[in-house]
């Protein structure tokens, strides 16, 4: 089946620094990737939708300049949390869509836990 | 816009008894509906999906769900709970009007007692 990986699986960074999270579709081409954020004991909140070669579409309330998304190739999307603060600590999950499986099919990565100290 | 409501924030059952996790959705178009499971500190695993084919959908690990358009429901069931079923379950909706974005319900925590 389709596999999505994320790197790193967990990261600790100091307040004020930036951290980059990678999302890769390993065995399929993903024209669209999604980034979610999940706080402890809460549901997943869609942050943005990224299409290969174009700018990401952010959900209302998500700061574009803080959460930079790049979808440079059909197998890679990156999320960069800039000038991170403790309130950015969260579980970040990406997903990728493979049109072979139909427009609704999404495959989720294992998530990246970010802790900002 | 599409939305999904999981009617119970947590459900507790005894091992060997049936499981019912309730989900209602709102969608302007024919939606696709999914159930995912998330074990603590783990990623998401797809249990089953409905995409306009058979209304009774069978998934992995003995779970199944029935799409009822008249009730706008997509409840998840399992005849007999196992201890390993204890996890967080998410009902998810996606449709054309929403640009195929995937919208998650708030989640239902399933507890299984020995």
List low-pLDDT spans of chain B: none
Question: How many beta-strand segments of chain A?
Answer: 11
Helix/strand order of chain A: EEEEEEEEEEE
Binned, the helix content of chain A reads under 10%
Beta-strand percent range of chain A: over 45%
- Helical segment tally of chain B? 0
Uncertain regions spanning at least 5 consecutive residues of chain A: none
Describe this structure in words.
The complex is a heterodimer of chains A (117) and B (114). In chain A, strand 7 and strand 8 form a beta hairpin. The model of chain A has no long low-confidence stretch (mean pLDDT 90). Chain A is 0% helix and 52% strand. Chain A has no helices and 11 strands. Chain B has 114 residues and is mainly beta. Chain B contains no helices and 12 strands. Chain B has strands at 3-6, 10-14, 19-21, 23-26, 32-38, 44-50, 56-58, 64-68, 73-78, 87-94, 103-104, 108-113. In chain B, strands 2, 5, 6, 10, 11 and 12 form a 6-stranded mixed sheet that branches. Chain B has a 4-stranded antiparallel sheet with strand order 3-9-8-7, with no helix packed on it. A two-stranded antiparallel sheet of chain B has the order 1-4. In chain B, a hairpin with a 4-residue loop joins strand 8 and strand 9 (73-78). The interface between A and B is medium-sized, with 22 and 20 residues.
Question: Helix and strand layout, with pairings?
Answer:
The complex is a heterodimer of chains A (117) and B (114).
Chain A: E1 4-7, E2 10-13, E3 19-25, E4 32-38, E5 44-51, E6 57-58, E7 67-73, E8 76-81, E9 90-97, E10 106-108, E11 112-116
Parallel strand pairs in A: 2-11
Antiparallel strand pairs in A: 1-3, 3-8, 4-5, 4-9, 5-6, 7-8, 9-10, 9-11
Chain B: E1 3-6, E2 10-14, E3 19-21, E4 23-26, E5 32-38, E6 44-50, E7 56-58, E8 64-68, E9 73-78, E10 87-94, E11 103-104, E12 108-113
Parallel strand pairs in B: 2-12
Antiparallel strand pairs in B: 1-4, 3-9, 5-6, 5-10, 7-8, 8-9, 10-11, 10-12
